[in-house]
Amino acid sequence: MKKKNSLHFSRCFGTAGSFKYYPVFLNLYGRKAVVVGGGKVAERKVLTLIRASAVVRVISPDITTTLDKLKKRKLLTHIKRNYKTGDLKDAFIVIAGTSSDEINKRIAQDAKHLVNVIDKPSEGNFIAPSIVKRGPLTIAISTDGISPATSKTIRKELEKLYGAEFTRYLNFLRVIRKKALEEIKDNKKRQEFLKSLASEKIFKALKKKGFPYLSKLIRQEFSKISALF
């Protein structure tokens, strides 16, 4: 059965760079996630899974200080031993992050659903992109597993391009959009106003003059338009 699964992975996914991944954002709320490995890389994966509201189980003889703190806060369950067949029962998503290629391969073969092998992406059926997170904004960067280092460099550039002010702006945008939908009755005017909030001009103003200036400007424009109806 294991050989069959391995052959299935090989036929479907080939080697890194020889196929194309399907980009997708997953709803992991309440889903069981198993991370095998307790080092720094596994730690980063666990933190991302917890933020996505997954039910996280970590299997490893040892875990990092951060993971231990999360365990004490009951944000994850820790199984203090090496991986065993059967550990992935009911797991929706699995991360193989041990220091053993052989064990990681076994994990990939045993997984029934989504599985990521950190050091050898071609052994699994998905890869985790490099992420820029600014409040509700998520930008995912991937090179299809060819060069994670390149993804990391691009991520750093995007972090500079889209700074912390975008978090404030998007939260503000959520409120002003709701008000526009409720108070601007003219459909054409409403659509023009909403489109203007995502214009290149607005983004430039946000970067150069900051959020306080921009939010005041938008409120003034909104007041003018809504007062007409």
Could you walk me through the main structural features you see in this protein, from its secondary elements to its overall organization?
There is one protein chain. The chain folds into three domains: 117 residues, Rossmann fold; 34 residues, Double Stranded RNA Binding Domain (2-Layer Sandwich), CATH 3.30.160; 62 residues, no CATH class. Helices cover 48% and strands 14% of the residues. The chain has nine helices and seven strands. The longest helix is centred in the C-terminal third of the chain and has 19 residues. About 5% of the residues have low confidence.
List keywords for this structure.
229 residues, alpha/beta, Rossmann fold, Double Stranded RNA Binding Domain, 3 domains, five-stranded parallel sheet, two-stranded antiparallel sheet, 7 strands, 14% strand, elongated
